Amino acid sequence: MTEQSSAQTTHALPSYLDPAHLGPWDTYLRQVDRVTPYLGHLSRWVETLKRPKRILVVDVPIEMDDGRIMHFEGYRVQHNISRGPGKGGVRFHQDVTLSEVMALSAWMSIKNAAVNVPYGGAKGGIRVDPRQLSRGELERLTRRYTSEIGIIIGPSKDIPAPDVNTNEQVMAWMMDTYSVNLGETATGVVTGKPISLGGSLGRRDATGRGVFVVTCEAAHDLGMELKGARVVVQGAGNVGGTAARLFHEAGAKVIALQDHKATIHAEEGLDIPAALAHVAQHGSLEGFAATNISPEEFWALECEFLIPAALEGQLNAGNAGSVRAKVVVEGANGPTTPEADDILQENGVFMVPDVLANAGGVTVSYFEWVQDFSNFFWNEDEINQRLTRIMRDAYKSVAQTAREHKVSLRTAAFIVACTRILQAREMRGLYP
Ligand SMILES: NC(=O)c1ccc[n+]([C@@H]2O[C@H](COP(=O)([O-])OP(=O)(O)OC[C@H]3O[C@@H](n4cnc5c(N)ncnc54)[C@H](O)[C@@H]3O)[C@@H](O)[C@H]2O)c1
């Protein structure tokens, strides 16, 4: 069977969506259409994946420091909870929309099922630019939002985590608010917490480490050596910085690194510890002693591994044709547009998709949740070993599915994930 594009498929949309402005939800629906032919008898249940299980839209009023009352729009979407409680981050951003949160929640269902952690998918957000808020306003916003969505979240219902513009402090406020309302401490209601409040060792490096582990697996499958391989990384933050460090430590040559201020290059390999120390001290790569190149040159660098680990939409129709990497491993969420995906596939570039490659973060969030339940905390070696095992197993089963059906790893990850979700749905049955 060949992969099919089904952009023309029409969907019976729920009445709350505007067909003219579906945004990322449209991309997600097309991805589901693409895998439906591979789902066998489970395709009878596929409509389940096209409708979020539960959507909560909340008004979040807060008193500003100057006495004004302001209202913000907040969401929590539980896309699917057939395999376990909802799991997914909370995004604070002025452009967040319901359609975007729906799509992000659905991709969490796929990611959690692809790596086989016992969660459904969920996501939350508030339409707010948090940089415009004082610390007190941010705390009040977070606490009121947590209270409003408190009716559907909980350690065995739906477990939020950080996403864009939310961090350990926001998670600490969420945990505290939920616990105060409940009358008991419930550390397992969120993950990505500070270590002192039930957070997990290894969480900070987990996504970059997962990227590194799946890259090693891909290299092994393709008969490529990691030692001496040329690696290009976009993003010197949590994901990109950690991945670059691990590649460097494994003897690969990270020949280029880009962040929002600078793009640096050295064909013999950059001094990654020094570059990351520079970022830690100055906030960006700007001013680091290395050759600067243009973004166009960056994407066109000849290399074995290219790791986009910054933002969405970075590999697009404008630059995908110039890519000379053999393998692209998506550290970021959605860094490749569907058009770029097709161009890269035509040009023979091997692609490891985000739903597999960056699942290390949610995997260690799962460990955090398990540790919180038992109040017994593991050491970092144990966490890294378990993470490595889960990421390897996930890569292997997705790669096996890709070979069986002669499809890309992205489609294979969706086949594996959608099959697991719909099997669970079928086994549970419909009530009544
Ligand atoms: N942190 C996690 O656990 C995690 C888990 C899964 C997915 N992700 C995804 O990985 C991506 C990166 O997340 P992060 O946590 O590393 O964020 P981060 O804020 O720590 O780092 C982002 C990096 O991207 C760079 N950047 C920003 N704009 C850029 C631009 N225009 N051009 C080049 N570089 C630019 C920044 O300078 C920074 O180095 C996001 O897509 C995120 O959703 C993160």
Automatic annotation (TrEMBL):
<dbReference type="InterPro" id="IPR036291">
    <property type="entry name" value="NAD(P)-bd_dom_sf"/>
</dbReference>
<dbReference type="GO" id="GO:0000166">
    <property type="term" value="F:nucleotide binding"/>
</dbReference>
<dbReference type="InterPro" id="IPR006095">
    <property type="entry name" value="Glu/Leu/Phe/Val/Trp_DH"/>
</dbReference>
<feature type="binding site">
    <location>
        <position position="207"/>
    </location>
    <ligand>
        <name>NAD(+)</name>
    </ligand>
</feature>
<keyword id="KW-0560">Oxidoreductase</keyword>
<feature type="site" description="Important for catalysis">
    <location>
        <position position="163"/>
    </location>
</feature>
<feature type="binding site">
    <location>
        <position position="111"/>
    </location>
    <ligand>
        <name>substrate</name>
    </ligand>
</feature>
<dbReference type="GO" id="GO:0006538">
    <property type="term" value="P:L-glutamate catabolic process"/>
</dbReference>
<protein>
    <recommendedName>
        <fullName>Glutamate dehydrogenase</fullName>
    </recommendedName>
</protein>
<comment type="similarity">
    <text>Belongs to the Glu/Leu/Phe/Val dehydrogenases family.</text>
</comment>
<feature type="domain" description="Glutamate/phenylalanine/leucine/valine/L-tryptophan dehydrogenase C-terminal">
    <location>
        <begin position="200"/>
        <end position="429"/>
    </location>
</feature>
<keyword id="KW-0520">NAD</keyword>
<dbReference type="InterPro" id="IPR006096">
    <property type="entry name" value="Glu/Leu/Phe/Val/Trp_DH_C"/>
</dbReference>
<feature type="binding site">
    <location>
        <position position="365"/>
    </location>
    <ligand>
        <name>substrate</name>
    </ligand>
</feature>
<dbReference type="GO" id="GO:0004352">
    <property type="term" value="F:glutamate dehydrogenase (NAD+) activity"/>
</dbReference>
<keyword id="KW-0547">Nucleotide-binding</keyword>
<feature type="binding site">
    <location>
        <position position="87"/>
    </location>
    <ligand>
        <name>substrate</name>
    </ligand>
</feature>
<dbReference type="Pfam" id="PF00208">
    <property type="entry name" value="ELFV_dehydrog"/>
</dbReference>
<feature type="binding site">
    <location>
        <position position="238"/>
    </location>
    <ligand>
        <name>NAD(+)</name>
    </ligand>
</feature>
<feature type="active site" description="Proton donor">
    <location>
        <position position="123"/>
    </location>
</feature>
<dbReference type="InterPro" id="IPR046346">
    <property type="entry name" value="Aminoacid_DH-like_N_sf"/>
</dbReference>
<dbReference type="InterPro" id="IPR014362">
    <property type="entry name" value="Glu_DH"/>
</dbReference>
<dbReference type="InterPro" id="IPR033524">
    <property type="entry name" value="Glu/Leu/Phe/Val_DH_AS"/>
</dbReference>
<dbReference type="InterPro" id="IPR006097">
    <property type="entry name" value="Glu/Leu/Phe/Val/Trp_DH_dimer"/>
</dbReference>
<dbReference type="InterPro" id="IPR033922">
    <property type="entry name" value="NAD_bind_Glu_DH"/>
</dbReference>
<dbReference type="Pfam" id="PF02812">
    <property type="entry name" value="ELFV_dehydrog_N"/>
</dbReference>
